Amino acid sequence: MRLRILTPVAEVLAADATIVRALDATGAFAILPGHADFVTVLGIGVLGWRGGEGGEHFAALRHGVLRVTGGDTVTIATREAHVGDDLAALERELVAEYLRRDEEEAHLRTRAVQLHAAAMRRLQEVIAAGREPVGIGGQP
């Protein structure tokens, strides 16, 4: 079967695979040739597959969607992916980095919501006081 890993900027992998292993919210699973059409959401983790030549390969993924079509194509769309043959190195280095980035992005989203809420509260105060909102430089 054909395995493809896509990011917004590139096709990271296009390879033959005899089995694909992944992990979603329900647990670990494997895809074999002839599998029924299937879609699932992947979190941060490592995807594994056995290549057509019999070797084991891995890809660290930063979230994504896995789709099986026609029993012979597995396509993964992900924010970020790195392919390698050293499972321990991918888990140790990239998965930890992906988790750190997710935490940082969550913090930034929280801060943006807080700033938006503060601006809305200030605007409500101005309106309640019956004044015109003033922009930068004192212009209405």
Helix content: 25-40%
Number of domains: 1
CATH architectural category = Sandwich
The arrangement of helices and strands along the chain is: EEEEEEEH
Helical segment count: 1
Coarse structural class: alpha+beta
Determine the N-to-C terminus distance: 63 Å
Biggest sheet record = 5 strands, mixed, barrel
| Chain-averaged pLDDT | 88
| Strand composition percent | 35-45%
* Low-pLDDT residue spans: none
CATH topology: ATP Synthase, domain 1
Number of strands: 7
- What's the CATH first level? Mainly Beta
What does this structure look like?
- By secondary structure, the protein is an alpha+beta fold.
- Helices cover 30% and strands 44% of the residues.
- The protein has one helix and seven strands, in the order βββββββα.
- A five-stranded mixed β-barrel has the order 1-2-4-5-6.
- A hairpin with a 3-residue loop joins strand 5 and strand 6.
- The longest helix has 42 residues, at 87-128.
- The radius of gyration is 23 Å and the shape is elongated.
- The termini are far apart.
- The mean pLDDT is 88.
What are its keywords?
140 residues, alpha+beta, ATP Synthase, domain 1, 7 strands, single chain, elongated
